[in-house]
Amino acid sequence: MVHKYNLDQTFIHKTTTHEYRIRWTRFGKTTSPALIFIHGTPWSSAVWQDLATSLSSRYNVYLYDHPGFGISRPYHRLVDAADHEQVDLDASLVLRAEASAALFKHWDMANPPHVVSHDNGGLVSLRLLLDHDIKFASLCLIDVVAIGPFGLPFFKLVAENESVFTAIPINLIEGFVRAYVKTATCKSLPKEVEDMLSAPWLAGGVQGSERFLKEMVQAHYRDTGVIENQYTRVGGLLPTKVIWGRDDAWLPVEIAQRLKKALNAEDLVIIEEAGHLVQYDQPGKLALEVGLWLSKHSKNEI
Predict the structure, then answer these.
(1) What does the CA dihedral 280, 285, 288, 291 come to, rounded to 10 degrees?
(2) DSSP 142-177
(3) pLDDT in tens, 156-213
(4) Residues near 193 by beta carbon (within 8 Å), at least 6 away in sequence
(5) 3-state helix, strand, coil in the chain (%, to 5)
(6) How far is residue 133 from each of residues 6, 111, 231, measured CA to CA in Å?
(7) Model's pTM, two decimal places?
(8) Is residue 38 within 8 Å of residue 176, measured between CB atoms?
(9) What share of the chain has pLDDT > 70, as a percent?
(10) DSSP strand E in the chain: where?
(11) Are strands 18-28 and 60-65 parallel, antiparallel or unpaired?
């Protein structure tokens, strides 16, 4: 599958411990309201390409790949540390949110953007809002990792047997990657979509199989920490909508109602016959829900 856009820009962010190189792009009308899409794990901005393209006639669209995903190289540690595994572990996505906050500030938008997030991109967006005081015009959360408990049995299996998994031949790891990707939908993925979503993590891919296993370990130790205590503020800060696939096998639909209540969200929509990747199970219904939401909260901007 050919992308309908190229991540032709690179943003470099350095901290005292790490360097991040984030690939990104912008398309649509520069005079229209800004709309940013945030992806999760193990995905990339590619999951947004159809939805983003369909909305680009009415919005100024921004897409990016987190460091270590898609075509953005993994972040680079600048200092040597005896506990480098702990330094690099970003289970709570604090480092990822910090890099995203720097990117948002680099964009220097005249008005707060609308934000649409998926998977653990939801936790990143909430950290941007609550930890980094980044202003949004609205927030739409789609099957997001944001409220505990977390973790699939596969995450635990990899985390507790990481040395075993890293010793598995690369061609067999490809089978794990593809099987994992397939469980994210309740309908069969077209082969070209499966190939596109799996490609970064396979032999010869930008990230590789070792990085895929590291992400599974991080997912096992996922923790929202004290930020969940601040969730009640969200509904008072900006309009918030939660969208969930009824048949999400990764994050059961019961989480959606808990999250709506925790955030004091304005709206919750359950999409039937959709798994975790609603973008592929029900692209039309998702586009309708997101489009209506954005129109409602940008009617004075367009």
Answers:
(1) -40
(2) EEE--SSS---HHHHHHHHTHHHHHTS-HHHHHHHH
(3) 777 677 777 777 787 788 898 999 999 999 999 999 999 999 999 998 899 988 888 8
(4) 1, 280
(5) 45, 20, 40
(6) 29, 14, 14
(7) 0.92
(8) no
(9) 89
(10) 9-14, 18-28, 34-38, 60-65, 76-77, 114-119, 138-144, 240-245, 267-271
(11) antiparallel
Structural contact between residues 22 and 13, judged by C-beta atoms closer than 8 angstroms: yes
pLDDT band of residue 2 (cuts 50, 70, 90) is very low
Residue 236 token pair: 């008072």
How many CB atoms lie under 10 A from the CB of residue 207? 22
Cα separation, 95 vs 145, whole angstroms:
16
Measured distance CA(244)–CA(118) in Å, rounded: 10
Phi, psi (rounded to 5 degrees) for 270: -100, 125
Which amino acid belongs to residue 62?
Y
Amino acid code (one letter) for 163: S
Note whether 139 and 236 are within 8 A (CB): no
273-284: pLDDT as tens digits: 999 999 999 999
Angle, helices 170-182/209-220, rounded to nearest 10 degrees: 50
Confidence of residue 83 (pLDDT cuts 50, 70, 90): very low
**DSSP letter string over 237-285?**
HS-EEEEEETT-SSS-THHHHHHHHHHT-SEEEEETT--S-HHHHSHHH
Q: Which amino acid is at 61?
A: V
Q: What letter represents residue 137's amino acid?
A: A
What pLDDT digit, counting tens, does each position of 213-232 carry? 888 877 766 667 689 999 99
Distance CA 147, CA 150 (A): 8
Helix (H, G, I), strand (E, B) or coil at 188: coil
Pick the closest to residue 142 from 229, 43, 14, 226 (CA basis).
Answer: 43
